[in-house]
Amino acid sequence: MQAMKLLLADGTEYEGRSFGARREVSGEVVFNTGMSGYVETLTDPSYKGQILVLTYPLQGNYGVPAPRLSEAFAELKDKYESGKIQIQGLVVLRHASNPSHWDCARTLGQWLASEGIPAIECVDTRAVTRKLREHGTMNGFLVEAKTTLADATVKCDAIEMSQVCAMTTVPDVIRYEGGQLKILLVDTGAKDSIVRSIISRGATVIRVPFHKDLRPLVAECDGVLLSNGPGDPKDMMATVEQLRSAVFPTKKPIFGVCMGNQLLGLAAGGDTIKLKYGHRSQNQPVQDLLTRRCYVTSQNHGYVVNEGSLPAEWEPWFVNVNDGSNEGIRCRTKPWSSVQFHPEAAPGPEDAAFLFDDFLRLVGSIRV
């Protein structure tokens, strides 16, 4: 195997061995602490432009399933969050070259190589994580072992983060038939499991890329769902203005997920801030401020709503138990709310899935 290394922007090096594509890349280096779910994680559009460090020591042990189209939901690949790997590169301690699972079609390394994604193993990923927790998220490179920082800066073209949403959204409007209720999904890099979650509950999803004119589609739909996505929500101010001008005047129910929480907060007149190293794991505890009940949630984001900036008619809904950051907001006077975590994910029990049920019940009651 070829020797490669993770090279951070401050010059710190972590040597390893290549097991993916033989290519040099740059990106924002982030970590995820999940013990499983690497197929879903690597295809999550929210990771676009990032080099992902997985802290759990063994990855790829159950292989990668064939990208079958779901029989129930046309055009959505079963067990995948999008049609391709979204990360820039992958860093692990060890990968399994001989996975074992009844649904395994290929190894993690084979999958990465087939899509041109570099990956290295034999790296102390927890040491990398401690570094990032101390200094915060930083840029870095996956390069050959002999490459210097100066050479890497010249050779590796970074993805323009302000453009990442355009790289991960559907090219045009897609309709998924599911029932009488029609939900407009504003796609800023949506996970396919969000679509599956809504269709499985008996509603039709009209998925529209964020840069399209929303006005005619909002008039056709019964509710609006704001999706997750990569990058800084303040790069999406054109979408924020569309929410204010095309969606808010209709007073139709709105529900946001992840970046959707941040976009709704900005549209309400609030502000967003960047976390030191973000929340990227399957075990983030959040508390419902209305019921005081706690939930274990799956998250993947680097920005949050600054709840102190919200207008008087808005209130915080959920809070992160670990660091006190905002995990959801609600409007006191209109049927608009959002959460920072992923209700469609299953970090163990499907505790947060009820939020989609509540949203669709609200949509149905107002429609009637």
Written account of the structure:
The protein has a ten-stranded mixed sheet, sandwiched between helices. Strands 1-2-10-7-4-3-11 form a seven-stranded mixed barrel. The chain folds into two domains: 3-159, Carbamoyl-phosphate synthase small subunit, N-terminal domain (Glucose Oxidase, domain 1); 165-367, Rossmann fold. It has helices at 38-42, 108-114, 125-135, 149-155, 164-168, 192-199, 215-220, 237-247, 259-267, 354-367, and strands at 3-8, 13-18, 25-32, 50-54, 58-59, 64-65, 89-91, 94-95, 104-106, 119-121, 138-144, 174-176, 181-187, 203-209, 223-226, 254-257, 271-288, 294-306, 314-320, 326-331, 336-339. With 368 residues, the chain is of the alpha/beta class. Helix content is 23%, strand content 33%. 50% of the residues are buried. Helix 8 (237-247) crosses helix 9 (259-267).
User: Approximately how much helix is present in the residues?
Assistant: 10-25%
State the CATH superfamily name of the largest domain. Class I glutamine amidotransferase (GATase) domain
Kindly report how far apart the N and C termini lie.
62 Å
Q: In what range is the share of β-strand residues?
A: 25-35%
Name the quaternary structure: single chain
Number of beta strands: 21
Number of helices: 10
The description of the largest β-sheet is: 10 strands, mixed
As a whole number of angstroms, the C-alpha radius of gyration is 20 Å
CATH structural fold name of the largest domain: Rossmann fold
Strand-pairing-aware structural class: alpha/beta
